[in-house]
Specification:
By secondary structure, this protein is α/β, with parallel strands linked by helices. About 45% of the residues lie in helices and about 15% in strands. Helix 4 links the parallel strand 4 and strand 5. The protein is globular, with a radius of gyration of 18 Å. The relative contact order is 0.14.
């Protein structure tokens, strides 16, 4: 199975969505992984009609909206770990709306990164923050089942958050919940900075569990794949051994030399590796 290539659309912000689609399609991407705040300042106010229109724009350019990420950037004041129950309930309602939005856009998954919105509040312990976050994640997994999408807990590097840094920590939550639509995923930048084992070994160990559902590609220097010292051929080979045919989303944070150039370099590098592997 050959993975499909997606671009995280904030790389092309502030271009209008149609121009993002036109450029990504011209580069050979199969889809866009959308950050909801790029569509509208308050993504919770996006209507079903608007969502279907954006999905149609993508389709007109031969693209899918693969899924959503950077879920809780907007509106402000959201937190899955906050001691205040009212804040968590408001956040849970926001997540439920984003799950519905993902389905309306034709997406298959949501990636829950959002480190600032899971970190402990002043005076709050990491254990307490994790317990409260876990309750919200479990509820999100239940909601995701109703919309037939997958909700992914993203382990993030320790310089971003203290709540869930490794695949093993995320897998513990997923396994305890036992919900088919709650899974975890691999962000290669965070995993490369945090995990002890090489990423190919992690894939070979954990992928057969069925609990990993998605991959984001980025170098540990936070640039695009191929723009740093990390080598992605062994990782792609491990995914091929596991029969992965899902989405590979390019998610750089440091755009060199700019967003469009980084998007072009990333797909050229990854596509070349895939072509060599298939030869």
């Amino acid at each position: 199975m050959t993975p499909r290539l997606a671009l995280c659309n904030e790389v092309l912000a502030p271009w209008p969505f149609e121009r993002q689609c036109e450029y990504a399609s011209a580069l050979g991407y199969h889809g866009l992984e959308v950050a909801p705040y790029t569509l509208q300042a308050d993504p919770l106010q996006i209507t079903a009609a608007q969502a279907r229109r954006w999905a149609a724009v993508a389709s007109d350019h031969g693209l899918h909206i693969s899924g959503l990420h950077w879920l809780l950037v907007a509106p402000q004041g959201l937190s899955i770990s906050h001691p205040d129950g009212a804040v968590r309930r408001r956040t849970q309602q926001a997540i439920e709306r984003l799950i519905e939005l993902c389905a309306l856009l034709g997406g298959a998954y949501l990636v829950h990164g959002s480190p600032a919105q899971r970190n402990p509040q002043p005076g709050q312990s990491v254990d307490d923050a994790l317990a409260r976050a876990t309750e919200v994640w479990v509820a999100a997994g239940e909601c995701a089942a109703r919309s037939s999408v997958t909700y992914c807990i993203e382990p993030l590097a320790r310089d971003q958050t203290t709540v869930v840094n490794t695949l093993e920590q995320a897998l513990a939550i997923v396994r305890a919940a036992g919900l088919p639509h709650l899974k975890t995923m691999l962000d290669t930048s965070s995993a490369g900075a945090t995990e002890v084992e090489p990423l190919p070994a992690l894939i070979d160990r954990w992928w057969p569990s069925g609990a990993l559902a998605h991959v984001q590609l980025n170098d540990r220097n936070r640039r695009g794949p191929g723009q740093g010292s990390d080598r992605f051929a062994p990782l792609l080979a491990a995914l091929a051994r596991q029969g992965y045919g899902g989405w590979l989303a390019m998610e750089p944070f440091d755009y060199v030399s700019d967003g469009p150039a980084c998007a072009a370099h990333s797909i050229g590098y990854v596509r070349a590796l895939l072509e060599v592997a298939a030869a």
